[in-house]
């Protein structure tokens, strides 16, 4: 059943992304991304069920009236079951539309977690297809534009 759901997600992805573009344009809502690292300096990347299959950073859209830091906490918890505190989230910068070849800006936060927290990932199977830890030297080739820009040396200042 899950495999069928993932296949349907890949088929629906182009339509979903058109809807997301229109929605983002109309509402002007930002999306947020979180660079989650563990004690081994590995980076958490996820692949969405409704996606092209590219690996990206956890995150998503801000809800009405929600701050970017609150959205960062909520999205990471919803997608991979990791509870972050506001104090654990450090704002890095905002990924800009032209830079990430997207239709929205995305505030980028960084959070470092313990080995215990890193081993306790619980993905939302309806939203996330896969979540894995990667080292900078072993990143997958199919990175989203957002993740590639966020992980570039100039982003981690």
Give your account of this protein's structure.
The protein is of the alpha+beta class. 34% of the residues lie in helices and 23% in strands. The strands form two sheets. The chain has a four-stranded mixed beta sheet with strand order 3-1-5-4. The radius of gyration is 15 Å and the shape is globular. The protein starts with a helix and ends in a 7-residue tail after the last helix. The relative contact order is 0.23. The model is unreliable at 20-24 (pLDDT under 50).
Number of E-type strands: 6
SSE order: HEEEHEHEHEH
How large, in whole angstroms, is the Cα Rg? Answer: 15 Å
User: In terms of per-residue confidence, which ranges show pLDDT below 50 for 5 or more consecutive residues?
Assistant: 20-24
CA distance, first residue to last residue: 43 Å
Beta content comes to 15-25%
Largest sheet geometry: 4 strands, mixed
> Strand order across the biggest sheet?
3-1-5-4
Shape: globular
Number of helices: 5
Query: Average pLDDT across residues?
Result: 82
What is the helix content?
A: 25-40%
| Protein structure class | alpha+beta
